[in-house]
Design brief:
By secondary structure, the protein is an all-alpha fold. It is about 80% helix and about 0% strand. The chain has one domain.
Length: about 220
């Protein structure tokens, strides 16, 4: 850290931020698909046997963000055209899918700027090392090799942090894309089950609205 100057502290801060974002995204995406599939299976089974209110109650109790998507469908069921219901459900699904990429822009920014911060620190370090020699001094390679090698440390650190950030960005971005695809499949299956509900099941839901977790 002492050889890199202020730029090294910036690179170190970038590394900490990248690691913090990675941990936060890992927690947010942990068992996301597993919980979503479990909820979807419960809701589909309830709809297949006409237990509409039971399926809604399962959504209100579930910690899965997919529950918000399903609750929008329950709220709009029987209150308008089927295409309007599907449109509202898919809007909510897209909102949930978008949240899977929260803060990933920070990883992308760090991956793009960290090498330049390191290069800036190296340039400043070399300029500082050269400024120590007077015009009439005889400069030997051994005299400049050490300060130059020390200045290059910050460039190496910047590249290392950039590689770290890019790998994490690609990993979580790809994972978010796979989860978003899974959400679409589960949502389509849910909408199909709603379309197949008999009229009396829809009336039951309208007469006994849930009072727990509310849809966004």
């Amino acid at each position: 850290m002492s050889h890199g100057g202020y730029a090294m502290w910036v690179v170190a801060l970038f590394s900490v931020i990248a690691l913090a974002v990675a941990i936060e995204r890992a927690i947010a995406q942990w068992q996301f698909t597993t919980r979503a599939r479990a909820l979807a299976e419960t809701v589909v089974r309830c709809l297949q046997r006409g237990a509409v209110q039971e399926g809604r109650s399962a959504c209100e109790r579930s910690p899965s963000p997919l529950a918000d998507v399903f609750l929008v469908g329950y709220e709009r069921l029987g209150r308008g055209k089927a295409e309007h219901l599907a449109s509202a459900v898919h809007r909510e699904r897209q909102r949930v899918a978008g949240e899977l990429r929260n803060r990933l822009w920070m990883l992308g920014t760090i991956g793009a700027t960290s090498p330049f911060v390191g290069l800036f620190g190296t340039v400043v370090g070399i300029m500082d090392a050269m400024s120590r020699f007077k015009g009439d001094d005889v400069v030997k390679f051994a005299m400049v090799s050490k300060p130059i090698s020390e200045a290059l440390i910050v460039t190496a650190a910047g590249i290392l942090v950039a590689v770290e950030a890019v790998i994490l960005y690609n990993f979580f971005n790809q994972r978010a894309a796979r989860i978003a695809t899974e959400l679409k499949l589960l949502t389509d299956e849910f909408l199909e089950q709603l379309d197949e509900l008999p009229p009396e099941a829809r009336e039951t839901l309208r007469k006994e609205p849930g009072d727990g977790r509310q849809a966004a």
